[in-house]
Known about the structure:
The chain has eight helices and four strands, in the order E-H-E-H-E-H-E-H-H-H-H-H. It is of the alpha/beta class. The protein has two domains: 2-111 and 184-202, Rossmann fold (3-Layer(aba) Sandwich), CATH 3.40.50; 113-183, no CATH class. Helix 1 packs parallel to helix 7 (170-178).
Amino acid sequence: MHLEFLVEDESGAEAIKRLVPKIVGASASWDIHSFQGKQDLLNALPSRLDGYAKWLPIGYIIVVVMDRDENDCKKLKAALEKAALSKGLKTKTSVRKGADFQVLNRIVIEELEAWFFGDVEALVTAYPRIPNSLANKRGFRDPDAIAGGTWEALERVMKKAGYYQTGMPKIEVARKVSEHMQPDRNKSRCFCLFRDSLREILA
């Protein structure tokens, strides 16, 4: 089995690069292709999927990972599904359970940083001045429901703890936090769906 990840930016690539081995172990090979933001990935997707459709071997799965941001989740997922199906590629959503497919589309609710808030232990290990009690504070108990943007929320948490006073470097933070993340303790429902979908593919 081989997984081809398409992610919207380098910070997502850094996180997935460290998380995938913890999720799938040695049961699959994988490559990650990052883009210059969500719109760049959306623009490139039709031609990229067209290329895959012409050569994709059996046992290859394309995994598209994209932040929801301000988009309607259902509409964004529908657009990704349509892009794949229009090239003759079967998606996980479009086939009956257990049937073969070539594309798995996953929307991150709301942004990648929700995955980091889902594993506060990893955050604290990477940045020890962040309080261990963060996960129990109002507004942070549900990583997927943090108001006002998870990137902005994480930057506020970092600054309050004395880190990155002039601005949070997303790529560096993604690299440092994901290094310590443990997939099976994550409290983000979105992350758990991503994790379980990968394991289901390889089961």
